[in-house]
Structures are given as structure tokens and as C-alpha cells.
Amino acid sequence: MPLSATLVRPPGAPGPTRRRFAQWSLAGGLLGSAPVRGAVESAAGAADAPADASLAKAFGQRMLFGMAITPEQLRGREAAFIAHHCSVVVAENAMKPEALAPLREGQYEFAAADALVDFARARGMQVRGHTLMWHQQMPPWLLKDGSATVSRAQLIGRVERYITDVVTHFKGRVFAWDVLNEAFVDGEAPADPGGMRLSELRTIIGPEYIEVVFAAAAKADPDALLFYNDYETQSPRKVEMISRMVRSLKAKGVKIDGIGHQAHCSAGHPSVADFERAIDAYARLGVTQHVTELDIALNDSLMENKVTSATPALLERQARRYAELVGLFLRRRAQVGALLVWGISDAHSWLNSWPMQRFEAPLLFDAQLRPKPAFHAVLEAAQRAA
Length: 386
Ligand code: XIL
Known about the structure:
With 386 residues, the protein is α/β, with parallel strands linked by helices. The protein has helices at residues 22-31, 55-59, 76-85, 97-100, 111-122, 152-169, 200-205, 209-220, 236-251, 272-283, 312-331, 373-384, and strands at 64-69, 88-91, 126-129, 144-145, 148-149, 176-181, 225-230, 258-261, 264-265, 288-296, 336-341.
């Protein structure tokens, strides 16, 4: 089923919380996830690198491999783990507008994001920037003029200034930016006749806001790859809407380099065939592609809350799903330059609290950073593609 009811978090709803799952140790015990022999030294050469084979090394030159990370993970065991497995990272939340400019226009809090970017670069990892513009996690000042709503001209000015300042700040350190996230909808939220989400940016500025944001990013760093990022990018309607946007930007001479597939998947959705058709359609537009936020829920649909524990059968089914999807991305490696999963382990996933509080275990490593069957499936897919 489509990712309906969409990625809208009610205002003020809590983000994911760290939870320990008693069930997990049972599953881990049953599976006895043995570390892979012949451990590969991490790119950083960290002495305490994990014993399991490095995913970044397995993907090698074929594709960048990485994870969404948080500032809290830059120390100790998690830091060594990230350096061992990743050739690219993205900040899960630390580079969103509400994090970088929480209080007022022109006042930035770059310290946490800088630490994350510098951590990655010092260990040979590249950094994706996520996300310059979105309809969520935007700071309140952006849309207000005192107690009134900001005017069109003011909002264009603020958006251009924010993008210019942020992209300039990270220039040469962030190789690819998600310039705009989730601007199109397929019936799950109010939209204009072209399917453009009626976000404040769209309603106050008009549909041309998309040109404004891409042009500002291109001007600030002509060398960065500029992406449009979205969920359900494989659905035929999204392919149509996003393709129209890309063609329109290119016709106007506005730079756009790539499509980001969030790829939040479940056991039952989407099909590999749909994904393959979509990748081929975007390839015809002359843009590159990244898989930016891959995770695979144990539930049949992302909107369900039926699974109560990670049984061996569910973990095996999840591993097969990872194998088929990652296998496709690797077959299309001429188009897909990077693959990132949305989190380092099941200790922390946004799916535990979106769209409801629930048990989920959608990533490659368990809450103790032990490899799951999904890890072995992805590792084998990468090694087979060698
Ligand atoms: C999520 C984070 O993982 C959560 O911690 C946060 O509370 C909300 O945002 N699509 C995106 C990501 O593009 O930025 C979202 O990240 C997940 C869905």
C-alpha cells in the first residue's frame, strides 16, 4: 500500500526515543549472529573497529555506502562502528533548519553539525547535507513577521539568505545537498493541481519557490550536487510529478543534479519492479540518483503496528527484502551513486515513533550493534556485485 497518511508528524510529537527491546536478545540468541571472519580494517584504521566485515569496503568503488547519524554517536564504540562501515554519512536531524537556525534569522548554531561533518571527513567519509528546505522541522521565525505572516518578498529573502549562508558554511565539506524534501504529494496531503504540496513555501511564494531554492543553492556552491529528495519516489504518480519538475528546472537553466529516493520500505511495499521502472525513468532525465534513507520495516506496511517482536522468520524475510532491493540498486549502479540507511542500529529508528509508538527493527544491526540477517544479505549483495 502507498505510504499514505504520509510523513506528517503532529506538531510537538516526540521524536524517536531510545528503547531496549527485551524480545531482541531472544531473537539475537536464537540467531546467534556470529561475526564474519576475516575482519577488514576500517577506512580510518580505528584500532577498535568492529569484527564484522566493513560495508563501505564491500561496496568499494561501486557505490558509496552510509548511514544517518547523530551528534551523540560520535564517541566511543558507535564512532568506531560508523567509521568502519561508512564511506558517506548524513545527519539524521542536526543539519535541518530548526537545528541550524533555531532562534532568529542570520543566527546560526553550527557547532553540532560542524563536529559531525569534521568527524566524518577526518575519517575519510563524505557528507550528504539534509535538508535545506522541507515543510517540517523549520524554525518558527521563518514564517512570522511579528504576529503576522511573512510577506512573499520577505520569505524569498529569508529562504535565499538561509540557503546561501548554510551552503557557504559547508562549502567544500558537503558534497551533495538535499535542497528540497517532499514537495509533491499523491493524495495524502493538500496539493495544488500539479501535485505540489501546499506547504507554507508553496502557498506564500508560489510554485516558483522550487526554482528559488535550487538557484540559491547552486549560486552558493556550484560544485555541490543538488538533490530533490522524497518518499514513494517509485510510485508512477511521483515519477510523473518529479520528472516534470526536473524538466522544468532544466528548461529554465536552474541546476538540479539528482533525485534522492528515501526508500522507507516495509515487508510488503514497494515492489522491486516499480523501483526499477522509476530508476530508469529518472535516468532518462539526465540526473544522478542516491538512495538516501533506506530502512525496511518488519511490519507489512509502514502504517501498521502488528509486529511485537523480531522473530527469526521476520528477520529472514527482512533480509530477503534487503537483498532484492540492494541487489537492484547495485545492478543500477551507473545511476545510483550512493546508498544510505536511516540509522546505525535498531536501538534508534524513527519508525519506532512514526506514525505511532510501536516496536520496529528496520535496520541492519540490532540494538547492541550486532549484525542481523539483513546485514549479511546486504554484505553478500555488495560482494556479489564485485
Ligand atoms: C526524521 C528523523 O529520523 C526523526 O528523528 C525526526 O523526528 C523527524 O525526521 N524523511 C526524511 C527525514 O526526509 O528527515 C526524516 O527524519 C524521516 C522521513
